[in-house]
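step 4 of 6: structure.
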Amino acid sequence: MTGGGDLTLGGVGLAATVGLPALGALVLALFPARLDRAARVTGTAFAAATLVVGALLAVGGSGDWFSYLPSSAGAPGVRPWHDLDLPWVPGLDLRFHLGVDGVSYPLVVLTALLTLLCCGSLLWRVPAPGRGRTLVALLLVVEVGILGTFLALDLVLFFLFFEVVLLPMYAVIAVWGDADRRRAARKFVLYTLFGSVLLLVGVLTVTTAAGTADLVTLTGGTGLSRGTQLAAFTLLAIAFAVKSPLWPLHTWLPDAHTQAPTVGSVILAGVLLKMGTYGLIRVAVGVAPEGARWAAPVLGILAVAAIVVGSLVCLAQSELKRLIAYSSVGHLGFVLLGIATLTATGFQAALIGNIAHGVITGLLFFLVGAIKDRTHTGALAELGGLRESTPRLAGLLGFAAIASLGLPGLAGFWGEAFAVAAAWQRGGALWTTLAVLAALGGALTAAYLLRLLRRVTHGPAAPAVLALAPNLAGAEVAVWGPLVLLALVIGLAPALVLGVAEAPVAALLEAIR
Amino acid sequence: MTGPVTLGVLLPAVPFGLALLGLLLPQRSRTGAAALGIAGAAVSLAVAVALVIALDGRAAEAAAEWVDVGGLAVALAVRLDPAAALVAVAVAAVALAVQVYSVGYLRDDDRYAPYAAQVSLFTAAMLLVVVSGDLILLLVGWEVMGICSYLLIGHDRRLPEAPAAAVKAFLVTRVGDVGFLLGIVVLGVAAGSFRIADVLAHDFSAGQLTAACLLLLAGVAGKSAQFPLHTWLPDAMAGPTPISALIHAATMVAAGIYAVTRLFPLFTRAPAALAVLGVMGAVTLLLGALAATAQDDIKRVLAWSTVSQLGYMAGALAVGSPPAALFHLLSHAAFKALLFLSAGAVIHAVGSNLISAMGGLRRPMPVTFWCTALGLAALSGAPPLSGFWSKDGILVAAERVARHHAGPTAAWVGWLVWIAGLVGVALTAWYATRLLLRTFLGPSRATPHPIDGAPTDTPEAAALDAPTPGADRTLGTAPIDAPASAPAPTTAGSPHDPPPTMRWPMLLLAVPTVALGLLVLVAPFRSALDLAEVHPDGFVIIPVALLLLGAGLAWWRWRADPATDPATALGPLRPALARALWLDEVQHTLVVRPVRALGRFARRADETVVDGAVEGTGRGASGLGRGLELLHRAGVPRAAAAVLAGALLLGAAALAWGGAT
């Protein structure tokens, strides 16, 4: 580990990953309002630069993967490829400590990619009431928060980044959203603030008890009594459960996702929820493993409840976007089930499930947004026959839905199948039952997604659909293309995600054993 | 990589690559799509034949690490043996026949390009299942087949029931696949690897083995349309007829049987699972044959017959004879694909699926007639056609278990399969004869087409086409038989044999239909499938006699009055059999409706209770805030009084506190 002040190239990269979007947002704020398009182009350029820098974080990290092998006993549970550790508020012993490893790296790239795609789609069309410059700037601020959350290795810093996301997202929903946007935005912000309060208390509980906020030191729960760990895990888990969201703390999500503009929904579903699941693995489980073991059965039961209830609710949904929003509850249920098993298979499943959900649901929200933009309705009863008028869009929606139902060979499969496998691996009556129920939830997932396809793409063309132009815009293809490709590539080569995660997951498991 | 392994990898890879290319083609590009589709199937066939030669009776296996999920190894593995290579040849040959046939059959279809690409994708997936040496990899092919089946069943936009049939097909099999996935997980977690070689080498406990095999059987039942998960297959006939031939007769539905043969060493150690399979197979065999007797839709007759024949294969597995099952799989692939392609030719010519609208087609359609006759004879097991040999193999295996207790299964399972199989022979002969007589002989019941073959590029044209008599009957007046694909009549006037693109595939498939069975006399073929040498004994008389009985009864009934359907002989049973004992309705009442109700309930509960609590908290907090605000909005006198009262209260408290200490 590099000490304070010892700046490496990797450390500069880390700083740039968080700094570039922040700088971009600042630059955009200085742009005059009339240069809206130029501002959007500039913002997109910053997002692209962030993606490049973020992706480059893997360079140099790969060389010493072998040193993570469990042989090195007593090594910390988090072994970043690169880190940046600067004193920040010496009086409070706060440090600006960033680091990246195989757990956070895929999420960093996904965040940067989705933000870039969202900015790209805003180049082409800005949702009412316009002011694209502000929207792009807000997205960049959200990106700063999310990337910071994934990279922070200091608990207090983690909390700060976690909170940065909240207000810009509120503005995105409240200004550019649908008809009922204000209520949804208020609900989102109040509900997640409630989670944040618990997170703050949890963070303070841990830091005061352990005397440090450094995640590398804290991982493994060293120095925390059992009671502290139980309390800390409860607080942190509830906080992250709100964000993830875990049933029954999920009800902010359907409203927020449905009312948000397309780019907002994509970021919300694609990466914002992952802050919760990432936090659960890295912070809650890492810092309070004793508490995690104690709460695992409850977490597992709630996760499976989320899978089953989420799918059932989707089966009865009548609004397109709300259905996709609710589907996140079920999909994240699989991720949380994987985490709850506290096994290597479960963590791996959760990590790839996270990425797959981000890619696939991001794509689904883009497509659903395109459908709603074209037809001006999201009611399933008013749609139908999309493949008659817009076959390419219908084909892509079909692809995304099929990927979302976890078809083996596409990205969604790995997380769901191996969450089930991990639960089965745990053995015992409870986990076996959970595995079976989760697998049944997989069938329900297929049921609601095929119902969606049947309503939207099959049958005779509905009046709202009949007049649509058959072609897709070039910008749409450019924005959706990478996600389609990723869903296929991750499905065929899951090692892209699982390979980098293998060593850190092993290290984490060793530390929390 | 050795030669066979390279070929084994190419087998699914080539059609997969071409399918991806095909999916990118514009929808109306017919020539390119046809070229890609036919090339994919033709190359696969060549590779499969080369594989048979390269293997030369040996097995080959290779694996590369795909991914390691927390200690569970998943491999990109191929596992090749002569039986797998033969199945691959069958799959590729039928796929080629169907691709060529589809060029003619979907001549007026404006979505031919995605269709051809999806058929290629399906071929790749099926071949992946055939060669896969890893259970997860097998699952990939297994589910991709399912999704292709879904997409292709829903292909025909003019059939209002097609989307529902497609969803049903996928969901029913997916319910079975819950078990299949769990079975794979049980095996993989216990063995630490999903490679078939590792799984077969692992020493499982008896409980694990029985649980895993039973769970796998759920998936097999879904894919191979075994009772009680058979309900999707007859509805799947809403897909275009070539699809029914390829996916819902020759290949995908046999994949369940094939998967069991791959893991059969496990099943031999789980007699309980084999017994369940035997019961499932026997019930399916009889149910399918009985339901086939009463259908009026030619494709549904064939679909129920497929269900029944899959029951035979399951029965063969249950009595411990994977070779017999695979042999029947191969011969069934040939004759059933032939039957479906011939049925497509008939439907093309008549413009309806309903047998009641056919009759007397032998003279105008001699090629189709002979193809159908050969296919039906093979299906019934008439010597010396392919079906005779393969079905006899199953009956002999069952008889051995029943009378000599040979094999891993209990004797009663042998009796069950044997007797059900023998009864099935008579029933099969009966419905096959009925189908042949009603379709091709006797007076014609067809009505001439009022519309000249209008090209159906546009929905308007499709709408115009709908009121043709055949389609009208199909859609309107047939409550019993949900109609299947009824392509618009492409030619006016009298029915005739199909054009060459459709005729040649039929003739190609007629060859194995006739001759495949004779291969049993060839030693390399026998050793490839691990078949025993055939020693016809006295028992071979029984099925032949039953065959003659069934066919004779149908013929006798028809002879008495060629204008009436021999199915009238079923009397009051006819409606029950036509609806397959109302199992669809049972399924709907017991599963579909409760799940839907549960969905509505979950949504309401989620909105009122879970979210209600959240919203209630919010409203409560703001209400409380307003109340407090009201309290603070007081006039000066009351405010002064309140301050005074507060000061008094504080003073009193201070006094009390001070007094106490």
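step 5 of 6: annotate
 - Strands of chain B lie at 60-69, 72-80.
 - Residues 580-617 of chain B form one domain.
step 6 of 6: archive
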